[in-house]
Request: fold
Amino acid sequence: MKEVIDLLVDRLNGLLPKYGIVLGSGLGHLADELRDAVRVPYAELEGFPHGGVSGHAGELVAGYMGKTPVVMLSGRVHYYEQGEAAAMRLPIAVLEGLGVNTLILTNSAGSLKDEMPPGSVMLITDHINYSGMNPLIGERSDRRFVGMTNAYDAALVERMRAAAIKANVNLASGVYMWFSGPSFETPAEIRMARILGADAVGMSTVPEVILARYYGMKVAAASVITNFAAGMTGAELSHEETKDMAPVGGRRLAAILREMIAGGDLHDGSP
Reply:
């Protein structure tokens, strides 16, 4: 890992990012907006996972949003690709090694609420790890017992809500439930998810939240809603629908992130 961090420190040429952003479906264009951007393909970073999901890039991009130095992971690897919950451990550890202390996670998700249609954005306020998998399984130190009561930092949650108001974007909020995928959920599973208190379902993010908390980072996360969950409309779900709808909500979430990060003077890394 040290070799990867040293390589990136050299490539970043003095840029000291305090904010890291994992870009999910529909958010890839945000990396193109960075000023003085440095791009490093995952293939050049030893040990970085190579995802195989259409619609996801595979590169680390660093630069400035306004005055704020940030580093973005454009594309992630999902548990369902190799059955590895810790697939994103090295990338997140590298972000921490670069000095990142705040991680913002984005994803695409299915809505369980009629009032949160495709194209909406949902701020994640808590999650349910329905998959039962955990990226810290096998970790031997007592650091593995990570507290998750405040997994989603309250100050960052409020900052994102304020940014949404300034950006004139309606921001829903709710609980995200992680299913392992890659098959979509059944109508019965969605009915169960509602009973358990979920507002959206998806196949990512939760392992990254756990890892970020393990590495001592503050976390905020948001979902781009790409579809209603199984059984809500009678239509079958598809990945094509996800790819088609992700840019709609992605533009809204991008506006929030611009206001949240570039709209304020956050270059000192304060939340």
Summary: Helices lie at 2-12, 79-82, 89-97, 154-166, 187-196, 206-214, 239-262. The chain has one domain: 2-262.
